Amino acid sequence: MQEERLQDVQQIAASFGAFCGVTGDGAAVAWGDPDFGGDSHAVRHQLKDVKEVFATGFAFAALKVDGTVVTWGENYPGGDSRAVQSQLRDVRTIAASSYAFAAIKTNGEVITWGSKNPPVEAEELPAVQHIVASHEAFCAVTTGGRCVTWGDRKFGGDSHAVEERLQGVQQVVASFRAFAALTGAGAVVCWGDDRFGGMLPKEVEAKLVKVQQLSASHAAFCAVLATGEVVAWGQPEFGGQVPEHLQNRLTDVNFVGSSKSLFCAVQHSGHVVVWGDPSRQGEVEEVEEELHDVCSVCASSHAFAALRRDGRVITWGDPGFGGDSSTMAAVVCVPPKHASDRPEEGKVALQLQDVGKRLKPRIKRSLSETRMTEKAP
């Protein structure tokens, strides 16, 4: 049943401990820890004609073809959108921080909901193209290529120091406490906490020529050049430095995805190269033979999901963060009402409850690691 549900997947999104995929027929399939949005049972009847899914750290939002939005997961970090539901019409796209969502409507209006959700004046956001978020701040890119930031300045919510350089912006990405923007000229502009990649070293800046794409982990950034090479900066244990033994392999790169502490480069050939946290870098080896014809990658805090051109999803990493879809995908979407009614599914459901109990220490560990990183000099 698990494999059947994860066929013909078109797009994947990830919270801190769960994934959700959109299939070709417009259905949404969630797996992972229910406390992080891995159980969409309560809204499953609404998850039809889904166009795309988005995630905070603890909840998901599904954008439907008709421009409406369905949310689930923990209430306070965006899983409960009832307060703004009447305004969630004609939505074009959605952005998310760790605790809040921001929906962009077709008329450029921005609707936000969730926790730690700072207000923003509508007149400050004319014709918004897209929005990106760090842990507690947002950055909106307007149709004119201007950046408008708001939220906690400790998390990159204040970009005034680099405002003059933020012209013709094409892309913005965010680490935990910093942002990096790619301009139309192929230059990169950073702001926010230096410890999280907010300062671009001069020796790195000199290498950033004709940048095509940016990616961000928890405390590092990575740029893909027109030559297919990659340049990284930030904390090495979060992927801010490419190991020497992998530099020769990082060629002909198409794009780069990231988890909390790892970068995953996808080459034009459809193969992948992973670097970052030494303790997790080898996890990909278990599925390396299946990682071919990859066209997209998505990641939770400590797990990846790769989408192949044939619609198959390959997962790896910590099972507690969605790294093993084979044991979790089926039941979290449609759990039985009573375990005794469906013996086999009920057995799996009970096993998943046990898994959920085991996940809590892992999630606490992840958040503890985050706090330790913040305090690091």
Automatic annotation (TrEMBL):
Coiled coil: none annotated. It comes from the Eukaryota. This is E3 ubiquitin-protein ligase HERC2. The lineage of its organism: Eukaryota, Sar, Alveolata, Dinophyceae, Suessiales.
